[in-house]
Amino acid sequence: xxxxxxxxxxxxxxxxxxxxxxxxxxxxxxxxxxxxxxxxxxxxxxxxxxxxxxxxxxxxxxxxxxxxxxxxxxxxxxxxxxxxxxxxxxxxxxxxxxxxxxxxxxxxxxxxxxxxxxxxxxxxxxxxxxxxxxxxxxxxxxxxxxxxxxxxxxxxxxxxxxxxxxxxxxxxxxxxxxxxxxxxxxxxxxx
Length: 191
Fold this sequence. Notes:
This protein is mainly beta. It has one domain: Metallo-dependent phosphatases (Purple Acid Phosphatase, chain A, domain 2). Helix content is 13%, strand content 32%. The strands form 3 sheets. It has a 5-stranded mixed sheet with strand order 4-5-6-8-7, covered by helices on one side. It has a 4-stranded antiparallel sheet with strand order 9-10-11-12, with no helix packed on it. It is globular and about 50 Å long. The two termini are 20 Å apart.
């Protein structure tokens, strides 16, 4: 998953930063974009690698058939909700769900907007903000971070991945991982 691509701008396409983004998108079954795409050409570029779901960001002033304000879907028995903005993200998960998902219960909550990667398990929900692959931590255009969500009926794995480093501009992101196992006794988390 990705968020906050903010293109075109200084760079026009995601592959101008190198092949890392294309390699990542080619490795997933479903591309999730948590908003601030800013141009349909970004979704067209991403779409060459597979199906895409996207949430509308505050800078997305266009329509796209896969774009919604909120995306909620089920995969492998896990419920996933995605919106663009959840500030402040530190609020209790039930408050975030009530305010942004109409109280809908999810196992995974995805958001973007801040350009700061975040991955944590709290209030029985995995919260994931993939940061930005192009403007990490609101720094100049450089390689940033993406999120990966792997779902199986009894296991969920989520991680923040660094795309690499741009020469002269190190990636400020931090890699993180969480794994959950669903069993007869409920969910056990490994951080």
